[in-house]
Amino acid sequence: MSGNSNVTEEVDAVVIGAGFAGLGMNRRLRDEMGLSVRVFEAGNDVGGTWYWNRYPGARCDSESFLYCLTFDKQLMQDWEWSGKYPEQPEILRYLGHVADRYNLRSNMTFNTRVTSAHWSDLTNRWTVGTDQGDSVSCKWLVTGIGCLSSTQKPKITGQDSFSGPSYHTGEWPHEGVDFTGKRVGIIGTGSSGIQSIPVIAEQAKHLFVFQRTPNYSVPARHGTVTKESLDEVKKQYDDIMAKARASAVGMHYEQSGQSALEVSEEERNATYERGWEEGGAKFLFGSFNDIGSDIRANDTASDFIRKKIREIVKDPAVASKLSPVDHPFGSKRPLIDTNYFDTYNRDNVTLVDIRSAPIQEITPTGIRTADGEYEFDVLVYATGFDAMTGTYNKMDIRGHDGLALKDVWAAGPLTYLGVSTAGFPNLFMITGPGSPSVLSNMPVSIEQHVEWISGVIECMQKDDLATFEADEQAQTDWVAHVNELASTTLFMQADSWYLGANIPGKPRVFMPYVGGVGAYRQKCDEVAAAGYVGFHLGKESISA
Ligand code: NAP
């Protein structure tokens, strides 16, 4: 059937990745739909993002009870989160529990990276190749590869000469790193940097933070959750998740309906103050509705945070360097932290502004910048990821006539609904570019795709269809819609990874869909209800 004599296995579906997406998709296709499924995972166990990102302080910014799979209500009742925000070890334990509970590892192949996937128009099947020599033939190929899974380590002169150990936050050693008595240098002050800096500072002898762009951050107000509060959530879980699914960002908070510009300065500051005290997403979503779209409204929030930085950080020169001025609040991923700005009051922490005095080289003993030399024993790269497309481009994915996905996406990713791309039949991308994905609470978006993709596959089985493929025009219209929506927001005013701006040479295209999780779900549901309008359904089954 595969037409390839080297094929080592034939299955209905191959799923790439064993994080939230791979676990959810495997469960759905294998256990609920009875398909044969092979899952490939590069790590040696399940966990995805949370398998790799084990850096000190790593945790999720979604509240724990929202950061879960919902396909089994009993699982939601049984699992007891301990932190307000789930910490990396706890999320990994949770995903391990999900894998155990539904025996999801039994058809997973670990320590194996998918390197190629080639479509055959003759057989209407994919042949999936791995770095371990597997060659698996499947009808459906589903990627659950995450949006932030290709680490970005900038090329810096002399970096190989550094004599101490160096680590990327996204590929952290499983045994952990002991910084006791060490001088540490860290490059990067994004989410991973602001989470790890306070924790490393507590342990290290000295920490040098190499900051290129200061970021806005609000306090997370992290803590433990009580059994009583979790029990209360569990009583209302259906309601909470229904709200999350219909919301803008996959969380259940009520979004404020008020403009920051229609209230007095006093009232506005009181609202921000409440958000600051409550912490986390409440600051952004519970305050005003135009912070993300109107620069005058945004200025009020940005000014408030800069004022807070000046209040917290004792040295005015350091406070000034930590204050973002080149982009509006929220135009890069909004950050929430625990003691981040306070950390710069410690005697053992030095902020090095590499915007005004750039790094010239990494030396065997540290970093030389335009204004001095900084010596340390351990180097941490908190420098981010080649987001959303990086992992796709690393695989040799070929559709009709050997067409390579990375060529089709050379000027930016092209998808219809962020889940499918023209020229690549029966390929489904969970939280692909052009879907809400990274602008949302990921498990909510992941499960929506799992459900939608399995709906397509059920329909193909019912009607004995061979192929399912995005229409070029529908795709062009969708990409235009995604760009148009983004252009009305302040997201376009920052050099962010959402736009690919962190990767030299990457096309500047806003990749996620900003229209909101609820609106997006509705669109996907309408497309399905209308018989998958905008997709070509190949009627000729090879089994016919
Ligand atoms: P990031 O947001 O892309 O931040 C990378 C940092 O490294 C930035 O400060 C960047 O500076 C700096 N950098 C990159 N290249 C550099 C160079 N050549 N020289 C000097 N500095 C350089 O990456 P991240 O912190 O790993 O976060 C990525 C995303 O992962 C987040 O936005 C979030 O979506 C997700 N994440 C989430 C959590 C959470 O839920 N709490 C935690 C970690 C990560 P510039 O700003 O100047 O480019």
TrEMBL record:
Protein's name according to its UniProt entry: Unannotated protein
Cofactor (UniProt): FAD
UniProt entry keywords in alphabetical sequence: FAD, Flavoprotein, Monooxygenase, NADP, Oxidoreductase
Any GO MF annotation of the entry: monooxygenase activity
Family: Belongs to the FAD-binding monooxygenase family.
